[in-house]
Inverse folding.
């Protein structure tokens, strides 16, 4: 048994080593990336004063507001629809693939693999690959978000089914209910609240990601942002960012309230 | 003869009547109503959007055929292409370093803010202000942050580091302060009674209690930051593997190279996920 002093000394040494390792990783990275921490962080206040001056709304940018809103609402609708379609697909696949309701263990492993594959291909790659065949349209953005979201939701739904529905399922099976009765009377009602909660989370996420996809595929709010940004109309850029902030925060507050009621 | 009816009349016994109303099989609750309402709203938005979607008049059959050809090139015939293996690997390294560095910055500054912002530790008003500021920072997509900083610092890694760090700080502040708020109040009060200073409480009581969730949140953020580093490289030209991906798929249309890059990225993300799982197990068993 080690004495308290020895224990504290050991703890101290361990902490020092961890801090030293993290510090040296930081130093090494900033050296390789050519990042000067001091001038980097002093750029932050400079950036904000610059923002305050150039991003402040002008009469011209206020006139653009209806156009910005229209694109933003289009983007939100796109994020919502891609998430909902992804959720429907993911629910079917998750029921087929989960350990509790699935066909067998091979299917489980295959489904997990597919989900992980879709999740790990970067959104940028999906956007660029789809852009090549589907051209510059909202449909391309929709597909890119859809493919990415499917990967996340399959995994989430499978875990939800395994965690939450197993016991209810067992109870219903004991009464002699058929497979479909078990699915529709036990599994779906049981997992619905968590399912909706995940869908809301993915919608929030996809609204943010839709901006990125928009910049790459030339659609929605991302396109407008890129257009104003590259033509140096910073008052309009500021207006666009303000609109994005408002929509994202409203969505976050709304989905938190919904979550409070359903969970 | 005495009939059953007579007995009933004498004793005042009444035949049990069937209940007037049907027994309710479901209890009314707001949760169910809300779930249906949300589903109806989401499905109608989806229906409207999908029927009004602009598809740029692409013939779906041709597009899917083209997509299959591209996917075939990407996933079945990956090749390093004209860039060569080494430059791609070093670009991958740069993206990974970007992710690690911004996660370190985010974790350190995020922890400080989280301590200040947690409801059970500090002044409520000050905490509320920090939470609102962080919510606003989080609402702006990472790519937009990077583009904003690129105006001041010039396009490149500096802007990428600052932009990614900003979003990481805001995200980790929220995650950490939620973990801190889950701590049992008695632990903190016990230390306060002994007259411990604020930072002693933070590092002797809070830090050891939440270290497991701290580590797992930090690793989740590292994975997100790696994905963001790629996105930023592609959409803001901030260098790294993302930029190579953008050039290969959007300019030189070399899909064999895209495949190679995608496999590299998948390799790193799976590695990160593996490390995260192992670390979590290590801290949970401790």
């Amino acid at each position: 048994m080690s004495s308290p002093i020895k224990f504290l000394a050991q703890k101290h040494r361990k902490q020092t080593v961890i801090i030293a390792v993290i510090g040296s990783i930081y130093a090494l990275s900033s050296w390789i990336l050519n990042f000067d921490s001091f001038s980097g962080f002093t750029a932050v206040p400079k950036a904000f004063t610059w923002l305050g001056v150039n991003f402040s709304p002008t009469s011209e940018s206020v006139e653009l507001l209806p156009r910005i809103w229209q694109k933003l609402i289009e983007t939100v609708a796109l994020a919502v629809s891609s998430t909902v379609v992804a959720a429907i697909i993911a629910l079917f696949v998750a029921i087929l693939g989960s350990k509790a309701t699935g066909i067998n263990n091979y299917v489980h492993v295959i489904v997990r693999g597919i989900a992980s594959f879709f999740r790990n291909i970067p959104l940028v790659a999906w956007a660029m690959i789809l852009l090549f065949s589907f051209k510059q349209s909202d449909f391309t953005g929709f597909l890119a978000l859809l493919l990415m979201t499917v990967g996340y939701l399959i995994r989430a739904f499978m875990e939800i089914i395994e965690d939450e529905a197993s016991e209810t399922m067992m109870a219903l099976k004991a009464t002699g209910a058929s497979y479909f009765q078990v699915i529709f009377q036990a599994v779906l009602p049981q997992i619905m609240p968590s399912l909706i909660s995940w869908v809301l989370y993915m919608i929030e996420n996809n609204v943010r990601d839709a901006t990125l996809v928009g910049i790459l595929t030339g659609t929605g709010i991302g396109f407008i942002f890129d257009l104003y940004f590259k033509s140096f109309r910073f008052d309009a850029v500021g207006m666009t960012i303000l609109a994005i902030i408002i929509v994202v925060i409203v969505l976050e507050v709304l989905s938190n309230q919904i979550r409070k009621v359903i969970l | 003869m005495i009939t059953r009816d007579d007995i009933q009349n004498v004793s005042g016994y009444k035949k049990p009547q069937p209940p007037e109303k049907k027994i309710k099989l479901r209890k009314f609750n707001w949760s169910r109503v809300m779930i249906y309402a949300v589903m109806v709203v989401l499905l109608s938005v989806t229906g409207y959007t999908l029927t009004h979607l602009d598809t740029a008049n692409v013939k779906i059959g041709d597009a899917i055929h083209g997509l299959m050809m591209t996917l075939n090139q990407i996933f079945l015939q990956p090749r390093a292409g004209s860039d060569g293996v080494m430059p791609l690997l070093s670009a991958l390294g740069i993206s990974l370093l970007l992710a690690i560095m911004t996660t370190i910055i985010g974790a350190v500054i995020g922890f400080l803010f989280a301590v200040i912002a947690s409801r059970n530790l500090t002044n409520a008003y000050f905490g509320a202000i920090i939470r609102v500021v962080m919510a606003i920072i989080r609402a702006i997509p990472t790519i937009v942050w990077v583009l904003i900083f690129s105006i001041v610092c010039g396009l490149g890694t500096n802007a990428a580091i600052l932009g990614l760090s900003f979003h990481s700080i805001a995200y980790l502040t929220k995650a950490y302060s939620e973990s801190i708020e889950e701590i049992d109040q008695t632990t903190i009060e016990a230390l306060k009674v002994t007259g411990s200073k604020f930072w002693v409480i933070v590092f002797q009581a809070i830090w050891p209690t939440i270290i497991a969730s701290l580590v797992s949140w930090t690793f989740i953020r590292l994975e997100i930051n790696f994905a963001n580093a790629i996105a930023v490289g592609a959409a803001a030209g901030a260098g790294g593997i993302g930029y190579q991906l953008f050039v290969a798929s959007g300019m030189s249309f070399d899909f064999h190279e895209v495949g190679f890059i995608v496999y590299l990225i998948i390799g790193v993300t799976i590695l990160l996920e593996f490390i995260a799982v192992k670390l979590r197990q290590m801290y949970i068993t401790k």
Notes: Chain B is about 80% helix and 0% strand. Chain B touches chain A through 70 residues (CB under 8 Å). Chain B has a mean pLDDT of 83.
